[in-house]
TrEMBL record:
Gene Ontology biological process: inositol metabolic process; phosphatidylinositol phosphate biosynthetic process; signal transduction
Family under the similarity heading: Belongs to the inositol monophosphatase superfamily.
Molecular function via GO: inositol monophosphate 1-phosphatase activity; metal ion binding
Keyword Transferase: no
This protein's UniProt keywords: Magnesium, Metal-binding
Origin: domain of life: Bacteria
Protein name as annotated: Myo-inositol-1(Or 4)-monophosphatase
Annotated source species: Wenxinia saemankumensis
Magnesium listed as a keyword: yes
Named cofactor requirement(s): Mg(2+)
Residues engaged in binding Mg(2+): 71, 89, 91-92, 211
Amino acid sequence: MPAIEADAADLALLIEAAEEAGGIALRYARRGFRTTWKPDDSPVTEADMAVDAHLRARLLAARPGYGWLSEETPDGPERLAARRVFVVDPIDGTRAYAEGAKDWAHSLAVVEDGVPVAAVVLLPMHGRLYAAARGGGAALNGAPIRASRREEVAGAAVLAAKPALAPHHWTGGALPPFRRTFRSSLAYRLARVAEGADDAMLTLRPVWEWDVAAGALLVTEAGGAATDRRGAPARFNAAHPQLDGMVAGGAVQSPLRALLA
């Protein structure tokens, strides 16, 4: 099957699976769920685990030759031998989900040879489904989207957590005069950049692949750029599945990243 057809077929599969995941998460949100805590003090809910189990069964049944990387599944070396790999965060923004907030997402990507080729970010509480396939552009609820064309850092809307504002991250210890905005889910931050609702996003700590793989494709297919904090291309399905931060945006991405120390 030609790559373009395989990417389109994988995108259709991801959309179906994401919508099913949304139904599961919403049912748990209505009826209640147990929350436990990981060793790193991050929460995990019954809904995270139920969505993960459903997605793994659903997606690998449809694509048995693909690898699997998910926040909620114990990792193993088998995926490294697969050319195509599902990279999934069953619920991105679990803390927000557990608190009853709306800004959580399902983040699903297919990565081929380290590069995302199909991606979906679904926000069930907002009714927003972002989708992209390699070379096919990005869309929100079926309508094409484009990243911001703003080039000036001053006044730009930049999605970032407060630790990213620390002076030592910036050249000369001077925080650029952008406007900080925030959403709990990294996948949602990237989706907002892809649709031009915000000009850029950045996270300067090491970031797990499942948080950003789908969103990175959304941004690049919307005409933007997504790199690590040093400007290296974002690559996925690494043996240790973390990136050195991420800076993503439309036209402002390069000038913003250039200001990092």
